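Data availability (excerpt). The following record was deposited with the supplementary files.
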Amino acid sequence: MTYIIKPVNHHPNLEKNALGLTRRDYEGTISTLCAGCGHDSISAAVIEACYDLSLASDQIAKLSGIGCSSKSPSYFLNQAHGFNSVHGRMPSVATGANLGNQDLLYLGVSGDGDTAGIGIGQFMHAARRQLNITYIVENNGTYGLTKGQFSATNDQGSKSKYGEENVLAPIDLAAMAIQLGAGFVGRSFSGDKDQLVPLLKAAMKFKGFSLIDIISPCVTFNNHVGSTKSYDHIREHNESVSSLDFVPIGQEIKTSYNEGSKVDVPLHDGAILTLEKLSKKYNPLDKGLAVQSLNEAEKNGKVLTGLLYINPEIKDHAEILNISDTPLNQFSDKELCPGSNKLAKVNASLN
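Predicted structure:
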């Protein structure tokens, strides 16, 4: 087997962020995905978001399951911590890691099969528990590694590469996450960098469960006429609820919009998500409206994208469970094993 190694040398005058790093410093290995795969565009957007936020790679943990999407973490942040879990079980691994060290930024990368199929139970409980993670679903509506079967997010009536029609209703992961109590829910298209990068930056700064469902066409098995997850179909039916600009704390706000109204949504760390409402009726703080809008879009054959819902008052799982701020991996043996007397008192209190 031949491996292609990326060159480590680059031009000395490349633009640098606040950490003195270039975008090249946030890259990973060379992608082995099909040429034109939307997942590679998502990897590029993650690189851009982390560069813009001046995030240190050693303070990031990237986690994945099984599938084309779960290969993606290899293609960005090669200096970050990483764990490739089994099919559908990424949320459990992320939960354990989160409990062990809350100081890291957790990026979970999954697919529509990994999340809406075998891992749907894991996904649901991670959302309802407010696991502090940016959960990215690279959604192409198909099982690309096993020759193009329909996934649970594939639209009813959509046709496969082989001419078969999907007769089952789809699972809308964004609507499900909102109903389960997720604090941040967005949807985007892998080919829309201007929308996707600000969404990723905002999700990474949000404290709680952040879902971004990204429509990412499979060029091999689901990019044909009749597919509702193809590049052409999504571009034709994409309806954005918002034009986004993320402004991190400490940076001067320079956004200026001429059309529509604007709302500033404060995040937990003081950062501001500046949202231009293209529809005067749409308010991302309104949970009921978000679910209603998603249902209406599905009926009309449209794909609703942008910031769909945000609750800046949400508590993450660590606050809910009143977990120590000190990472478990930093406790001494004495603190972790306080002795038999204290254990006896704990047991006695449970009688």
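Summary of structural features: The longest strand covers residues 303-310.
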